[in-house]
Specification:
This protein has 13 helices and 14 strands. By secondary structure, it is of the alpha/beta class. The protein has 2 domains: 3-161, Rossmann fold (3-Layer(aba) Sandwich); 179-332, Rossmann fold (3-Layer(aba) Sandwich). The strands form 3 sheets. A 6-stranded parallel β-sheet has the order 2-1-5-6-7-8, with helices on both faces. Strand 10 (208-211), helix 7 and strand 11 form a beta-alpha-beta unit. The chain starts with a strand and ends with a helix.
């Protein structure tokens, strides 16, 4: 038995997928006989980035409840800055605005701010490279998408370990008459793509239920009204676990079409509920699990292409059942016990 500390970073009152993974890892480690604990280090947001890193470096992870910690497992920036002699980083993501999303950010900045943020970006790259190469014993990527970024950004060769779905009471009650989507409502999640697809001719009989909250909520409501699809899309807002599981159990399929997602926990949870997933070719992590015509449908990131995919599954229950059954089989191959064995190195 090892004494383990799982560390992640999060802004106040934000429930991201990395926190779900962190809690699931702690639970799984305890189930394997380890004494595991979770520490959440601060994330002060974009404007106080280096204050966030400085605060993380001061976090003491050497002892918990008076006992020496044998190993640390960190999940994301800046939590991988904590210091320990046995430190595995199971990387969820770095600060993407200064990495793969930099062209988008830079395009939105004034010339003066672009220079300022460019300096911050170079400093952050240097700090992250030092921490991941000097302070971390091993780096494991949560997806092949993350693996490729680690190699491109830092020259780090990392194994890939996809996070399994959390140990929740998943079930499949039926293949109902609606498509379910759940995520934070922000531009990168591209929930607007689903709303726009509902207005396309092939999908004009498709209904959707969307769970989640975020800065794009108001725009999405307005978009649904402007496209005259508000009567076929229901926004749930913030969703608790029982409600999420109930919709996963009852929906026809799950739609998850983000842009260049690091991993996309929703995919694994849909699979565990025997539901196929509709995603896009440029969605990143989800495409590593969704095999087109086997465990879901992979389409182009356009409303027209997504509308065809939505209509196919909405109109063909047997197809949804077949793909969902394959998806459940895929989810069953993902084991938290195996994940713990791979991540614990002491």
């Amino acid at each position: 038995m090892a004494v383990l500390t799982v560390v992640t970073s999060s802004p106040p009152s934000v429930e991201g997928g990395h926190l779900v993974i962190a809690r699931a890892l702690v639970e799984a480690a305890r189930g394997c006989g380890h004494d595991a604990h979770l520490i959440v280090t601060p994330d002060y947001g974009f404007g106080r980035l280096f204050a966030t890193y400085a605060a993380t470096l001061k976090v003491d992870v050497s002892h918990v409840d008076g006992r020496r910690v044998d190993q640390v497992i960190s999940l994301r920036y800046p939590s991988f800055g904590v210091r320990h002699s046995a430190h595995v980083c199971w990387l969820n993501h770095a600060m993407r605005e200064y990495y793969d999303l930099w062209p988008r950010l830079a395009a939105s900045l004034s010339p003066r701010n672009k220079v300022k943020e460019g300096i911050r970006r170079r400093l952050l790259h240097a700090v992250d490279r030092h921490l991941l190469k000097r302070h971390v014993t091993q780096v494991v990527a949560q997806s092949y998408t993350i693996q490729s970024r680690l190699l491109a950004d830092f020259g780090i060769h990392a194994d890939v370990l996809h996070p399994p779905p959390p140990r929740r009471p998943y079930r499949c009650d039926e293949y109902g008459d609606y498509i379910f989507a759940i995520s934070r409502l922000n531009p990168l999640k591209r929930v607007d793509l689903l709303v726009r697809a509902l207005a396309e001719a092939p999908a004009r009989s498709v209904r959707a239920v969307i769970g989640g909250e975020g800065e794009s909520a108001g725009e999405l409501h307005a978009l649904a009204r402007s496209l005259s699809v508000a009567d076929r899309v229901r926004f749930l807002g913030r969703v608790d676990e029982p409600t999420m599981l109930a919709h996963l159990a009852r929906c026809r399929a799950v739609c998850f079409t983000p842009y260049a997602e690091d991993y996309g926990f929703v995919t694994a949870e849909a699979f565990a509920s025997r539901k196929a997933v509709i995603t896009c070719r440029d969605s990143g992590g989800p495409t590593e699990l969704v095999v087109d015509e086997e465990t879901g449908v992979v389409c182009d990131p356009t409303p027209a292409s997504l509308a065809i995919a939505l209509a196919r599954l909405s109109d063909d229950r047997r197809l949804a059942e077949r793909l969902g059954s394959n998806a459940e089989t895929r989810a069953a191959t993902m084991s938290w016990d195996a994940a713990v064995r791979r991540l614990v190195i002491v």
